[in-house]
Design goal:
Blueprint lengths: L7 E3 L5 E3 L3 E2 L7 H12 L4 E3 L7 H11 L7 E6 L6 H15 L4 E6 L7 H13 L3 E7 L3 H8 L8 E5 L7 H9 L3 E5 L10 H10 L3 H11 L3 E2 L6 H8 L8 H8 L17
Family: Belongs to the aldo/keto reductase family.
Pfam families: Aldo_ket_red
Protein name: Aldo/keto reductase
Length: about 280
């Protein structure tokens, strides 16, 4: 059982990554993101997930500084945006992200989307950043099986993480199985289905365990070995999302959530995305 917010998974290069993080997509730069980061760190979170495209790396950096927590205790993720993909431009984009965040080393750097014809050059740049010690781990986001096969073929380093849309209505079994066989850690974005939680089974389980629907889903993810990064700017909700380490879903109840899969995406489809 995953028993504590400080719990982590070990990536295939030995780096430890917290099982729970704060996502800051659509969180405004400035006070909103600064306060969300500080609230989450206060609530015990040690992982923050941002991206160049979110436009809030500056605020995340300020929040980290003002939190008063030692840098080595935190796990910070950011991502290279589609327009910056390619070898030299990725190295440049990384430097910009690093400056905005005010950090010498990024814990995890991801390719945000698999931009056709570019992501392999982008990956070579990621490998360089990793070898240079500028990043502790490198990975991808929104990569399907065929993208992963393409990247792995002819690369020196297998991605350590694949961050994908994943929740009970989009369980991604085939992709998860591929990642597992290549020791790629799966991380879920939009684990809370962008707030679409009014599902009878979910309501019933929330009642049964005396937890919120959000807590039930996050717990389900953790029990499947998935890293979760729920997004919130509300301090109370941030704390609530972290209160998932004092109960366990039974195998039967977890299976009820597995059965909700409809391959339904709330976000874009990586194979049909207008890059």
């Amino acid at each position: 059982m995953t028993v504590s917010i400080t719990e982590s998974v070990e990536l295939h290069n030995g780096i430890k990554m917290p099982v729970l993080g704060l996502g800051v997509w659509k969180t405004k730069d400035g006070d909103e993101v600064i306060n969300a980061v500080k609230s989450s760190i206060q609530a015990g979170y040690r992982s923050i997930d941002t991206a160049a495209a979110y436009g809030n790396e500056d605020g995340v950096g300020i929040g980290i500084k003002e939190s008063g927590i030692a840098r080595e205790e935190l796990f910070i993720t950011t991502k290279v945006w589609n327009a910056s993909q390619g070898y030299d431009s990725t190295l440049q984009a990384f430097d910009e992200s690093r400056k905005k965040l005010g950090l010498d080393v990024i814990d995890l750097y991801l390719i945000h989307w698999p931009v056709k014809g570019k992501y392999k050059d982008t990956w070579r740049a990621m490998e360089k950043l990793y070898k240079d010690g500028a990043v502790r781990a490198i990975g991808v986001s929104n990569f399907q099986v065929h993208h992963l096969e393409d990247v792995i073929k002819g690369s020196e380093i297998v991605p350590m993480v694949n961050q994908i849309e994943l929740h009970p209505r989009l369980t991604q079994l085939e992709l998860r199985s591929f990642c597992q066989s290549h020791k790629i850690q799966v991380e879920a974005w939009s684990p809370l289905m962008q707030g679409n939680l009014d599902i009878p089974v979910l309501v019933k389980l929330a009642d049964k365990y005396n937890k919120s629907a959000a807590q039930i889903i996050l717990r389900w993810g953790l029990q499947h070995g998935i890293v979760v990064i729920p997004k919130s700017v509300n301090p109370k909700r941030i704390q609530e999302n972290a209160a998932i380490f004092d109960f366990t879903l039974s195998a039967e109840d977890s299976a009820l959530l597995d059965a909700l899969n409809e391959n339904h995406r709330f976000g874009p489809d990586p194979d049909n995305f207008n890059f």
